Amino acid sequence: MLTINGIIMQRKAVERMGMGNFGPWELILLLFYVAAIAVPVVFVIWLIKTLKRIEKHLGGIEDSLSRMDKS
């Protein structure tokens, strides 16, 4: 079980490492960085899925045209 003194010492150690005192601006900045990375990744995934769908539809159109050509 931690004592008050132990908690204070842990807090000081965390502050010395530079990991303490996260304010709202730091959290907003962190969320901005995460969004700046996530948005392009999601866009690329969406683009790949869309291109696969377009390729599938174009393949169907090509098959229809080749069948019409043969008849």
Task: Label this structure with key terms.
single chain, 71 residues, mainly alpha, 85% helix, rod-shaped
Give a short account of the largest sheet. none
Number of helices: 2
Mean pLDDT across every amino acid position: 84
Unreliable segments (pLDDT under 50, ≥5 consecutive)? none
Q: What's the helix-strand series?
A: HH
Report the C-alpha radius of gyration, rounded: 28 Å
Q: What form results from the Cα inertia axes?
A: rod-shaped
- How far is the first residue's CA from the last residue's CA? 85 Å
The number of distinct β-strands equals 0
Structural class: mainly alpha
Provide structural commentary.
- The structure is a single chain.
- By secondary structure, the protein is mostly helical.
- The protein has a domain at 22-70.
- It is 85% helix and 0% strand.
- It is built from 2 helices and no strands.
- It has helices at 4-16, 24-70.
- The chain is rod-shaped, with a radius of gyration of 28 Å.
- The mean pLDDT is 84.
Write the layout of secondary structure elements.
Blueprint: H1 4-16, H2 24-70
